[in-house]
Amino acid sequence: MSNICVYLQNIEPYLKQWFIHEHGGEYPVSLVRGSVESCMLKQFIEKRNEEEATNIDERTLAIYIPTFKDKDPRTYFYLPNRAKVALHKCIKNRFDIQMWQDLHQFCNLGLQIDDIIYAWMEQHGIELSEMNWNAIAKRYQRKRRAYFNAMLQKNKRLQRKKVTESSPSASSSSSPQSDSED
User: Fold this and answer.
1) Please, which residues have CB within 8 angstroms of residue 159's CB and are 6 or more apart in sequence?
2) Does a structural domain hold residue 168?
């Protein structure tokens, strides 16, 4: 692992805290070998003649550039802006997947989600603040709404399919006509 970092700007505080916790709790973050984020860095890291100036604040996420066999971090240390955006989206997507997998099971039981979100935040190294809770609860509600809308659409499709299969026009064409023989 090198001591050269890539910096992602404007990372939400809860997302930054979760990501740090997921990769061992140390900051700057050392990526797990073979992780999606590590593979993205390997794919998109480029050579750059000069270092770019980075404004580091509390919404900046620093990630150590792993040492790859074919890309030495002393030479390959630049991540283009579109690759940074893709990496940020990848981190958000992984967060959403883990949040949904962990919290959705409690929704099915009809439990209040308030304390469950706080417990989940604590389990995943996220500061227990109202701002973080509101952001996570809002993300969860969006995912929940999308899930229920998808289930509703699926049920409607299944109902339409049942109706078309059991309609009189479909059943009369498949039955033999024995009335004409009498």
Assistant:
1) none
2) no
Checking if the pLDDT of 178 tops 80, the result is: no
Mean local confidence (pLDDT), 46-62: 83
CA 82 – CA 88 distance, rounded (Å)? 10
Q: Identify the residue whose tokens are 């991540």.
A: 79
pLDDT tens-digit map of 119-139: 999 999 999 999 999 999 999
Domain membership of residue 88 as a residue range: 5-162
Q: For residue 12, list its beta bridge partners.
A: none
Task: Decide if 100 is inside a domain.
Answer: yes
CA angle, 13 as apex, 44 and 76 as ends, to 5°?
20
Whole-prediction pTM: 0.80
Q: How many domains does the chain have?
A: 1
Do the domain assignments include residue 81? yes
DSSP per residue over 96-165, as a string?
A: HHHHHHHHHHHHTTT--SHHHHHHHHHHTT----HHHHHHHHHHHHHHHHHHHHHHHHHHHHHHHHHHHH
